[in-house]
Structures are given as C-alpha cells and as structure tokens.
Amino acid sequence: MTDQELLECAAKAAEIKCEFIDEVFIGKGLGSDGRDWPWNPLTDDGDALRLAVNLNLDVEFVVCDGGAEVWACATWRDWPITYTELLDQDKFAATRRAIVRAAAEIGKDKK
Asked: Could you give the CA distance from residue 31 to residue 96 in angstroms, rounded to a whole number?
C-alpha cells in the first residue's frame, strides 16, 4: 500500500475528511479555529498520537534478540490487529508508521 493509500484508509478509520492537494493531505476542519489543516500522521508526531488515541491503539516497544520493534495494536470487530515496525535509525518514524498501518487496516474494513 502506498503512503497516500495508508493515509486515506487511516483518515477513514478516524472519520477525518481529507483532501489530497499538491501532495499534501488537508484535513477538513482540523485547525483549532475550525479551518482546514495539513494532516499527516506519517510525518507529524502530534497527528500520529491523536490518531492512536482516537482509535484506542496500544503502542508497545519490544526489545528482541535482533533489535527493537514498535507494535501498534487494536481490536476491531473482535479481531486483533497488530503492526510491527523495526526501530532502526528513526524510532519516531517507525512508531508513526506502525500507528498509521494499524489505523489503515481498520479504515479498510469500515464501510
């Protein structure tokens, strides 16, 4: 799945209305004053945290023999959803991506 598709599905999961304009996702009414605002939980820590909180995702850091991983977990329709990203150079990027991937899986299933 491309980053754009991940973001579209994640937005659907969180019931955020977005438009893709000039390679930027714009969330409708997301600004503190109700204006449209750029939204990208793949690159913005705050957007990723809000997404995780809104979807009740559990984020866990696990140290394994071969390194460290971040897990984003949820239960959707009584089925567990878990996405894992390796914590290589950028643990923040890995965490954001795991959150977005879990959210996208929920969004794919939403009607």
From this structure: 20
Task: Specify whether the CB–CB gap between 57 and 21 falls below 8 A.
Answer: no
Summarize the chain as % helix, strand, coil (round to 5): 35, 30, 30
Q: Is residue 89 helix, strand or coil?
A: coil
Give the domain extent around 88: 3-109
Q: Is the pTM of this model over 0.90?
A: no
Q: Which residue, 80, 87, 88, 83, is CA-closest to 99?
A: 83
pLDDT digits (tens, 9 = 90+) for 55-84: 888 888 877 766 677 777 776 666 667 777
Amino acid at 2: T
Q: How many domains does the chain have?
A: 1
CATH number of the domain that 37 lies in?
3.30.2120
Task: Say how far apart CA 68 and CA 15 lie, in whole Å.
Answer: 32
DSSP state of 19: E
Per-residue pLDDT, 79: 64
Do the beta carbons of residue 92 and residue 100 sit within 8 Å?
no
